[in-house]
Specification:
By secondary structure, this protein is an alpha/beta fold. The chain folds into two domains: about 170 residues, Rossmann fold (3-Layer(aba) Sandwich), CATH 3.40.50; about 180 residues, Response regulator (Rossmann fold, 3-Layer(aba) Sandwich). Helices cover about 40% and strands about 20% of the residues. The relative contact order is 0.11. This is Substrate-binding domain-containing protein. Its main location: other. It comes from Paractinoplanes bogorensis. Keywords: Signal.
Amino acid sequence: MKRSLGATAITCLLLLSACGSGDSGDGSTASGGGDGPKLVYFMAPNTTPTRYIQQDGPAFEKAIKALDPSVEVKFVNAGGDSNQQLAQANAAIAAGAKALVVVAADPNTSAGLLQQAEQAQVPVIGYENPPVKGKLYAQVIFDPEKVGEQQATYFAEQVSSGKLGAKPVKISRQYGNKGDVYTTQMLAGQNKIIEPLIASGDIQVVCEDYIKDWAPDNATKATEQCLTKTQNGVNAFFGFYDGITAGIIAALKGKNLKLPVYGGQNPELTGLQYMLTGDQQDNVLKAFSVEAEGAAKVALAAMKGEQPPADLVKDTIDNGAMQVPTAKLESTLIHLEDGKDPGDAVQKAVDLGIFTWAQICVGPAEGTETCKTRNK
């Protein structure tokens, strides 16, 4: 991470405070104007998932500086509050932003942000979980429907093989934040594979919950409630993302239960660590730096008044107001295999530059055989 980002940007993101001169009081920065520097804002939704602060933001600045060193990147974090994000967008526009790269704090209430940006003629680039029901210049995402299909295909294989016990296999499903574009499309991808197994009686869904803000503590509560409701009568848990699976695992550990947990994706350290300990069975890897580089290219094209780069933006997605030009990126499924070192799967995350072995081999994974041999 460059010194120019360093502690200053991370402080901005974590404390929701302004940086530089002209404190706007709402987590943004007021510097320059319409004729000022080439200014682009990277707008994170929250501190969960951690990736937007720890990885995507720094990678975005690195990529955009490599393409055009004259561009200034500012970072804000909405703290999970859509109203805060709207205020930050308004302040960014007033500060002379030439483009906004936005991961929506709450897509359900994000239309106002897009309306304000459209009125100010500031292009908005959606990122991973984009705002909806308004004008977007383009968006860059890992295809959520495909991610859901990848998770469900592997899970269905475990059901069909008998690894999860006799049928019907009793499962608890935990989804992402209700109404999020990513939740809706991921669920559609999962259901393509899972619903036929439910209809055939191979799977019985004994609990299902939308996890507010994708937050691990909310997943823990939902898991505890499910275990109470079913008197621990669950064969497996099927989640949506590493924060959710971490919450599930925390609840299981709190009750001294060892049940298989599936549905990792958007990898966090906990997900990969729990794969090494055998608590989590799978993960869908996303090369965050690739997404950040794609967004940097799209943002620069927007700032120049050009069309989105055709070699990257090849699809469209209906966001309720328009067909949004979309760059869909490829994701990679990894999973544990009987008799094999779990490090063989996790190595793929290291190869993609998502995390290093030194980062992974702490906390619950520190004492694993994999870390003893690979973290050297």
